[in-house]
Structure prediction request, 675 residues.
Amino acid sequence: MAQSPIKSNRNTPVSRCHAMSRKGGKIWSRLVLAGLMVLGGCASIGNPDGGPYDETPPVFVGSTPARGALNVKDGKVTLSFDEYVKLEKASEKIVVSPPQVQQPIIKTSGKKITVSIEDSLKENTTYTIDFNDAIVDNNEGNPLGNFAFAFSTGEVIDTLAVSGTVLDAQNLEPVQGMLVGLHEELDDSAFTTLPFVRVSRTDAEGRFTIRGIAPGSYRAYALKDMNQNFRFDQKAEAIGWLDSLVVPRTEVRMEPDTTWIDSLTIDTIRILPVTHYLPEDLVLLTFTEEPTFRYLVKNERTALNKFTLIFSTPSDTLPLIEPLNFPQGDSAYIVEANPRNDTITYWMRDTLVYYQDTLSMCLTYMATDTLGLLSPRTDTLRLVPKKTRAKQLAEEAKKRKEEEKELEKRLKRGDSTVVKKQDPVLPVKVNGGSSMDLNAVVTITVNEPLASYNDSALHLVRKVDTLWVDEPFVFRRQKAKLMTYELLAEWRPEEEYKLTLDSAAFTGIYGLSSKKTDTNLRFNSLEKYSSFVLTLLGPINQQAGKQAGGQLIAQLVDKSDKLIRQAVVDDDGRAEFYFVKPATYYVRLLADDNGNGVWDTGLWDDRRRAERVFYYGKAIEMRENWDYSEEWDPLAKPIERQKPDDLKKNKKEKRERKSKNQQREEQKRKKQKKK
Prediction:
């Protein structure tokens, strides 16, 4: 039986017996199954029910050279297993230590796997081939997890190992396929200039084990190595690191070892010394840096009357535009910029200007130069719309002809009804309805910037008995939204409102005005909601999110880990949620160090980590008209054990496999009942 580098019985007779029992039990079970199928075939003819899925992984039975061999001179390794095997995502999962310049050649043939190391073998070096969970059986795809093979080119084989978990810093999701490496060079610059000395990859649960380590002190790093050079040299590569040094060591613990007569009967229980390889609980939180190289990604003119500039990174300032064939000055257009100033739309005011097929301008903006510094850059842009004015006029003429033909057809049929043409109006959308949330914000959206709006043309009334009574309200433009406005009022549960917009309440910059509209609003009763109060315990209020301008934010997420609601934690450690729709929620906590209300990534050059995230470990089922409260110390449980399994993406495959087995068992029981 293959020894685990983390927990070993030192090849005691008991552990060898276990290996033989496992192999023999698997063969015997197959023989029995074959015999039963033959006997069943004699009794009746019918479709087989399939039976449950085989969930047993392949068993390693031998190799050339032997596992742990010394003085190996040939880089070719052949591994044998007890059944036909195949490799899944070999290039992503299998890693050789020390790292190889040329990729090893790995092949499967029946029950064998061959690995040919193409680089010249180094003298007096321990080599490990970490297969992760790439080896699976040929039929059901059951993985042989945590499997590695080691040999040495010298007289000694290094046997120390360290283990741990890699998590995504933003959501604590286990990260699969992440390279984890050690540097014996303790200066941070080694991460960007030198390849790792020992490496491994994470499995589906984010777990890793780095094997074949010599005694000493190391730095540990995680890297999504996109160019396979075993160093961090691209901003798009996800990274993580540990501040403390990693010192591999061993520890012997006395643990029970059980021998079974069968699946229900214990033969003997012996207390044996077991070697543990430490540390085995390293946790690396990874993130991908925000791009810092600033450039103009794209410029586009999606319509005649507007154009958009898209930049690679945010900016504190807007670019400068010098028109070459249209009037100078801010009055020529209205600027619509997102909060990051990386996507900016310019709405042209003058129809005579934007009817031009080409808008020419000089654009000056801050861009990253060859030295990696921000400096002014000027580009000349010539913007052409997707649909020119000539094409637009042609389409309008074609539409008029079609309308005239339709009119002629109706007149020939004797239909002389005059269809009055509607004057063009400014479209206005009001979000309303008969089942509004009490905390909903009523918004009014237009499809072009407004030249003006008339407050007195908006009327909000509430139904009291049979009468409509005027209600006070506040009308304003939403923050960072150019064409969305909000109407705020004291909404009462189970009461009806009506919002009336008089004609010409809104006028756009192109002269169109809105028509009269009525929107009915009815708000839900209090009984349809839950309330939730979260109280944080422990030192979290002093340790997280309390930097200058920082804050703690409690978040409610759904079963897909999607953010539903969030609330700032007050000075007493409380976060309050009212008018919560009944559903299943999970609680997440964000240490918002810069106080901008969103999660921010880290930056290697400043050795700044991503903002911390914590998960409350269980679901909260909220029902109608219930008040809930929970107390939670986010630092009480290790970070790698906080995220509930129901939210982890890698757990879905296991649940699906289990579900298939349950379905087969259910089908089998139904067939037996029919018989």
In short: The chain is about 15% helix and 40% strand. Residues 181 and 199 are 4 Å apart (CA to CA). The two ends are 43 Å apart (CA to CA).
